[in-house]
UniProtKB/TrEMBL annotation:
Entry EC number(s): 3.1.4.53
UniProt cross-references to NCBIfam families, sorted A to Z: sensory_box
Domain PDEase: 533-870
Active site: 609
Biological process per Gene Ontology, one example term: signal transduction
Stated name of the protein: 3',5'-cyclic-AMP phosphodiesterase
C-alpha cells in the first residue's frame, strides 16, 4: 500500500512550510511565498543573529516600549499579532520565570512572544549562549485547538480527552460554517491546531480545508484530518487531495486516548513548534524591513536572500530584482577582503562601491557579519550598510570640554551640532553655479545627487539628508572622533583634549610609480672630503649598541654614556644596519654629519622633546622595520626603510618644549608662519629639509636623482606630519579599516599582504604613518622603568609650560598639569586608555610584536597601582623610580612581569 500516513503528512508538511516561509512580512505571504526557499531552522537562527547584531540594537532596546518598536505580523488567525522587540537583557531575565501554564480566554498571550513559557511539554534545556551570540528562544505558547466534529462519539471523545491530557486549549465546533466563523473570530480565532472529522461522507472536508487555508493568518495553523482506517488501506487518492488542499496531516480514527495523545504530541513537536519558530522569524524580518539601517542578507554562496526597505531605497531596486542574484553583481570594487574575512567567520568593516539601478555607483560603509547557522562555516552574511562619510555612528563622539579653555585650545564644542548652512533655494543656486564650472569634485557630485533625492522625499528624510550634507561639507571627513572621556577624569580630559585639539591639515601624498621602487644611483659622486670631526665610538657605547634592535634597549644609559648625544651614535649604527648609506648612495660621514646637525637642533634643555626622544623614536622605528623584514612581508622596500629612519630621527627637530597651542596663544612666529595649523610638525619637517639642503656636507639626499629625491622628500614630510596628534584617530581609523584592529588578523596580513598591497600606495602610506606614530608614542609600551622615566619627563615639560603660561598670564592649555596638583599616574592611565591602547593593539595585530601589548598592559596595571598608592607628584615618581631601579624590573623577563 502507498506511503505511511506519517511519511505522507511530513511530505505535506514540508510542502506547506516551504510555501509559508517566505522572507517577506505581509498579511498574505502566499503572494511572495515561492520566491525564497528559506530553510526554516536556518532562518530562525539567522533571525536570532539579526536581532542581536542589528546596529540599531541599542535603539531597539531603548525604544522597546515605544509604538515604533511594535511591528504587526500576521500570525495565527487573522488577528494581527504584535511582535514586541524585547531587549535582550529583559529577555534573558525572563527566562526561567514561570508563566501561568494555561492562560485561558480573555487574557490571551501573544503567540509570538519571544519568552519561553512554562507549559512546554518536554522543554529541552536550551543553551542561551554559544559563547558569542545569544540564541532566540523559540516561542512555545499553550496550544489552542479548534475541534470540528459533527457528532459526539468515541473518537471525538478520545480527541477531546487527549487534548485535555496535553493541556491543549479547546474550542469546539459542530459544523464547518461555525468552525470557520470561530477560526476567523478576531478575539479568539487563529488557532494553532484545527482537527477536523473527515470520516463523514456528507461533509466536504476538502472545501472546508480550502476555505480555512484562504483565511488570513492561517498560514501557521496546523490542520489535521481524522480519517477512517479504510481510507489508508484502499489505494485511494483522497488522502493526497486532502494534503494538497492544505491539511498538514491525516490521522487514523481511534477511540484510544493513548494513541491519539501520542499523535497529538508528535504534531505538537514536529509541526506546531516549528511553525511558531517560523512565525517569529517572520516577525523579525518584518521588524528588519522597517529599521533605518540598510541591511542585505546573503546565503553562503553570496546570493542575496533578502534586503530591507532601506536597502531598496539606497540601491534603487526592489527586492524581487535582487533576490537570488550574486552580491558581486552589485559591488563594483574589490571585495576580496570582505570575502576572505567573512569566509573565516570574521567580521568585515570597510568601504565598498555599490552599483545602483539608475544612478551612479554609491560608496557605502559596509559592516559584514558572517553567521554560521549550521555547522562551523558561514551560512549567511548580514551586511549592514551606511553611506560612506556618515559613519560617525560607528565612531565614538568628540568629548565635550566642560569649559572653553582659551581661544584655540578647548575641544571643539558641539562639533556634531547640525546647522542648516543654507536654505534650500540658496543651496540649489550655489550648486548650480558650481556645476556650471568646468570642474567637478566627487563631493560636489554627491551633494548635488543628494539634493535631487531631497526633492522627492519626506520632510523627515529631507532633514536627515540635510545633516548628511552638512557632514559632507565639512573639511576632514576623518577628523578626530574621540572616545568619550569620563568627566570624572579631568587629567585625562586635559591631556587628550590638548593633544587632539587643532584644525586638521592636509598631508602630502607620496605616490610612487610602480617602476620606482628600486633606488637608482645618483649621478653625483659622494662627498667624502667633508671635514667632519670623526666620532670615536667608545667601547662601552659600541657594546651597548649591540642591542640596538632590542625592544628593551637601554636608551637612558646611552644618553648618559654619550653625554646627551645619543642620536648621533644610535643613528649611525641604525643607518649602517639598514644599509641606508648604499640605499642613498651616500657615505657614512655625510650621514653622521647630518645626525650631528640634526641632534644639535634638538633642545638639550627640553626634558622630553630632546634628542634622546628622537633617538628613542628612531630605535622603535628600527625595531618595527626589523620585525617587518623578519616576517618577510616585503612591506617596506629599502627606500621606505631609509626614509622611515630619517623621518623618525628628525621628527621633532627644533622642538621648543612648548605645544603648538602654546605657540598659537603666544603669537609665536611659527604659529604665524603656519597659520595655527599643524604648527610644530610643519616646522619639524621644514627644518629637516632646510638644514639638510643648506650644506652639501650634510646633504644626505645629494646623490639621489630628482625624482627619487622628490619621492623621499614626500615620504619624510608625510611621516613627520603624521606625528601630529590632532589627526591621531583619523590615521588609526584608516589603518584599522584596512588592516583590522586585533591580533586575530596577523595571519591574514601575512597571507594577503604579498598579494594585495605592494602596489597599493595608499595602504603603504597608512603603514608608514602608523609606524612612525607607534614609534613616537611607544614609551608606554617599553619596560616599566623606561615608561616611568618618559612619563616623568613629559610631565615635567608640561609643568614648565603651565608655569610659563601662569607667569605670562596666558591661557593655560592644560590646567590640570600643574606641578602642585597633578596626578601623573592618572595622566598615564588616561593616555594609555584613550590614545595608546587601541593603536598598539592594532599595530601588534599587523606587525606581530606581542611584547608591545604585554608591556603596555603591565605598565597600565602598575600606573593603576601607583594611583591607588597615591603616587602622583614628580617627587613620588622619582621615589618610585628608585625602587623600580633597585628591583631592576626592566631586566625581568616579560612572563615574570605578567
Ligand atoms: N607618556 C606620555 N604621557 C602623556 N603624553 C605623552 C606621553 N608620551 C607622549 N605624549 C604626548 O604625545 C605626543 C606625541 O607627539 P609629540 O611628540 O609632539 O608630543 C607628545 C606628547 O605631548
Amino acid at each position: 500500500m502507498g506511503c505511511s500516513p506519517s511519511i505522507l503528512s511530513s511530505l505535506s508538511n514540508n510542502h506547506n512550510n516551504r510555501k509559508d516561509s517566505g522572507l517577506y512580512c505581509s498579511n498574505n505571504s502566499d503572494t511572495n511565498s515561492n520566491k525564497i526557499d528559506a530553510h526554516n531552522e536556518t532562518n530562525t537562527a539567522l533571525a536570532n543573529q539579526i536581532l542581536v547584531q542589528s546596529s540599531n540594537k541599542d535603539v531597539l532596546e531603548k525604544d522597546c516600549v515605544k509604538k515604533d518598536s511594535i511591528v504587526s505580523v500576521s500570525g495565527f488567525g487573522h488577528i494581527t499579532h504584535n511582535f514586541t522587540i524585547i531587549p535582550s537583557s529583559i529577555r534573558r531575565a525572563t527566562i526561567g520565570t514561570s508563566a501561568p501554564s494555561n492562560s485561558r480566554l480573555g487574557h490571551r498571550k501573544s503567540s509570538l512572544a519571544l519568552t519561553p513559557e512554562e507549559d512546554c511539554p518536554v522543554e529541552p534545556t536550551i543553551k542561551l549562549h554559544d559563547g558569542k551570540y545569544p540564541y532566540l528562544i523559540p516561542p512555545n505558547p499553550s496550544v489552542r485547538a479548534l475541534i470540528v466534529f459533527y457528532k459526539d462519539d468515541q473518537v471525538s471523545d478520545a480527541v477531546l480527552r487527549s487534548c485535555e491530557r496535553l493541556n491543549i486549549e479547546i474550542t469546539r465546533a459542530k459544523s464547518t460554517d461555525s468552525a470557520l466563523e470561530l477560526f476567523q473570530s478576531p478575539l479568539n480565532g487563529g488557532h494553532h491546531l484545527v482537527i477536523v472529522d473527515g470520516r463523514c461522507k456528507n461533509t466536504d472536508v476538502e472545501s472546508f480545508g480550502r476555505s480555512l487555508r484562504s483565511s488570513k493568518g492561517s498560514q501557521y495553523t496546523i490542520m489535521v484530518c481524522v480519517v477512517k482506517k479504510s481510507v489508508f488501506e484502499k489505494d485511494d487518492t483522497s488522502i493526497l487531495s486532502l494534503l494538497d488542499v492544505g491539511y498538514n496531516r491525516c490521522i487514523i480514527e481511534s477511540p484510544h486516548v493513548s494513541i491519539l495523545s501520542s499523535e497529538l504530541r508528535q504534531i505538537q513537536h514536529s509541526l506546531i513548534r516549528p511553525q511558531n519558530v517560523i512565525a517569529t522569524q517572520q516577525a523579525l524580518y518584518a521588524a528588519l524591513h522597517r529599521v533605518k539601517d540598510t541591511v542585505i542578507i546573503t546565503d553562503d554562496a553570496l546570493r542575496i536572500q533578502y534586503m530591507n526597505k532601506q536597502a531598496e531605497r539606497i540601491l534603487g531596486m526592489k527586492i524581487d530584482e535582487v533576490v537570488g542574484r550574486p552580491l558581486h553583481d552589485f559591488i563594483n570594487s574589490d571585495a576580496s577582503v570582505l570575502l576572505s574575512q567573512t569566509n573565516r567567520l570574521r567580521e568585515f568593516d570597510g568601504t565598498l562601491s555599490f552599483t545602483r539601478k539608475v544612478q551612479d555607483p554609491i560608496l557605502l560603509h559596509v559592516r559584514a557579519y558572517p553567521v554560521a547557522c549550521l555547522g562551523k562555516s558561514t551560512t549567511h552574511l548580514i551586511l549592514s550598510l551606511q553611506a560612506s562619510g556618515s559613519h560617525e555612528m560607528g565612531l565614538p563622539s568628540i568629548p565635550q570640554a566642560k569649559e572653553p579653555r582659551g581661544s584655540l585650545h578647548s575641544i571643539r564644542r558641539g562639533s556634531f551640532d547640525i546647522r542648516s548652512i543654507a536654505s534650500d533655494g540658496l543651496r540649489r543656486t550655489s550648486l548650480a553655479k558650481l556645476s556650471s564650472l568646468p570642474l567637478e569634485a566627487p563631493i560636489t557630485k554627491v551633494l548635488s545627487l543628494l539634493t535631487q533625492v531631497q526633492e522627492n522625499c519626506s520632510s523627515d528624510e529631507a532633514r536627515l539628508l540635510d545633516r548628511v550634507m552638512d557632514f559632507l561639507k565639512r573639511e576632514g571627513l576623518y577628523s578626530p572622533q574621540i572616545k568619550e572621556i569620563r568627566p570624572e577624569d579631568p587629567v585625562a580630559t586635559d591631556l587628550i583634549g590638548a593633544l587632539l585639539t587643532q584644525g586638521p591639515t592636509n598631508v602630502v601624498s607620496s605616490r610612487r610609480s610602480s617602476n620606482e621602487s628600486i633606488i637608482r644611483s645618483g649621478s653625483r659622486q659622494s662627498s667624502t672630503s667633508a671635514s667632519v670631526p670623526k666620532i670615536k665610538m667608545p667601547t662601552h657605547v659600541s657594546e651597548l649598541l649591540e642591542c640596538a634592535l632590542d625592544w628593551d634597549f637601554e636608551i637612558f644609559r646611552l644618553e648618559e654614556l654619550t653625554e646627551k648625544h645619543p642620536l648621533v651614535y644610535l643613528g649611525t649604527e641604525l643607518f649602517r644596519r639598514f644599509d641606508v648609506y648604499n640605499t642613498f648612495n651616500c657615505d657614512e660621514t655625510t650621514f653622521r654629519s647630518w645626525l650631528i646637525v640634526i641632534e644639535s637642533h634638538y633642545h638639550i634643555v627640553n626634558t622630553y622633546h630632546n634628542s634622546t626622544h628622537a633617538a628613542d623614536v628612531m630605535q622603535a622605528t628600527a625595531c618595527y622595520l626589523q620585525q617587518l623584514a623578519n616576517r618577510d612581508l616585503k612591506i617596506m622596500d629599502r627606500l621606505d626603510e631609509a626614509t622611515a629612519l630619517i623621518a623618525s630621527a628628525a621628527h621633532d627637530v627644533d622642538h621648543p618644549g612648548r605645544s603648538s597651542a602654546y605657540l598659537c596663544n603666544s603669537d609665536n612666529q611659527l604659529a604665524i608662519l603656519y597659520n595655527d595649523v599643524c604648527v610644530l610638525e610643519s616646522h619639524h619637517a621644514a627644518t629637516t629639509f632646510r638644514l639638510t639642503l643648506s650644506d652639501e656636507k650634510i646633504n644626505i639626499f645629494k646623490n639621489l636623482d630628482r625624482d627619487m629625491y622628490k619621492l623621499a622628500r614626500s615620504i619624510i614630510i608625510d611621516m613627520i606630519l603624521a606625528t601630529e596628534m590632532t589627526r591621531h584617530f583619523e590615521h588609526l581609523a584608516k589603518f584599522v579599516s584596512v588592516f583590522g584592529n586585533d591580533a586575530e588578523n596577523k595571519d591574514i596580513v601575512i597571507k594577503k599582504y604579498p598579494l594585495k598591497l605592494p602596489n597599493d600606495e595608499d595602504n603603504q602610506m597608512l603603514i608608514r604613518r602608523m609606524l612612525i606614530k607607534c614609534s613616537d608614542v611607544s614609551n608606554p609600551t617599553r619596560p616599566l622603568k623606561f615608561c616611568v622615566e618618559w612619563a616623568r619627563r613629559i610631565a615635567e615639560e608640561y609643568f614648565i609650560q603651565t608655569d610659563d603660561e601662569k607667569r605670562k598670564g596666558m591661557p593655560i592649555v592644560m590646567p590640570m598639569f600643574d606641578r602642585a596638583t597633578c596626578s601623573i599616574s592618572k595622566s598615564q592611565i588616561g593616555f594609555i586608555e584613550f590614545i595608546i591602547q587601541d593603536m598598539m593593539n592594532a599595530w601588534d595585530g599587523f606587525i606581530d610584536m606581542p611584547e608591545l601589548v604585554q608591556y603596555m598592559q603591565y605598565n597600565y596595571t602598575q600606573w593603576k597601582l601607583f594611583e591607588e598608592q597615591g603616587i602622583n607628584t614628580l617627587n613620588d615618581i622619582k621615589r618610585k623610580q628608585m625602587s623600580i631601579t633597585n628591583a631592576n624590573l626592566s631586566s625581568m623577563k616579560l612572563d615574570e612581569m605578567m
